[in-house]
Design a protein that fits this description.
Chain lengths: 130, 106
Amino acid sequence: QVQLQQWGAGLLKPSETLSLTCAVYGGSFSGYYWGWIRQPPGKGLEWMGEINHSGSTNYNPSLKSRVTISVDTSKNQFSLKLSSVTAADTAVYYCARGQYTSHWDLQTRRVFYFYYMDVWGKGTTVTVSS
Amino acid sequence: DIQMTQSPSTLSASVGDRVTITCRASQSISSWLAWYQQKPGTAPKLLIYKASSLESGVPSRFSGSGSGTEFTLTISSLQPDDFATYYCLQYKSDYTFGQGTKLEIK
């Protein structure tokens, strides 16, 4: 049973860089995407970005200029950095596994893969305050 | 960007009720939609993927339907453990969550 364990600094000052890491235990690291999602207090969920074992990334356009996601396949870990944080970045941050489903497109005769989050970490509360 | 509109934002119901939550996409997402349940202080839990596929271990009282732009999550007979917040997620193009539906005890 795959488990995600995440950690990182919980209290930051404005303009600092948020840094979180998520380790994958009990399952394969390749063949999936690995992502970050955040949830401000009392609000909904926001996807931040994802990475696969090869280092291919996709980012939320609204955060792209400040987000970097990296991977360390030797440790089955992936990490999130968010620069220049403000109080608006105060949230619970979750790491998650992107599980794929495939689709054969008759017109292009190609297989497409679509990923949804199926396994989540417990979340890390990050507070930004001066 | 694909926007997801979820309704209602709050739903009051009783144990044993049948309830339905709706998600509408701003453009067609085929069947690339998932549903999650979240309880306070915990991570979201996957219930349904590909619009209607039940995740392993999820009770059969949960079901999903729809395709294109309109989707529903139905709980056939509410149990005490089901009172939580529910989110839809489109994953056709990047990822967008609905705003959430808080299911409360009536």
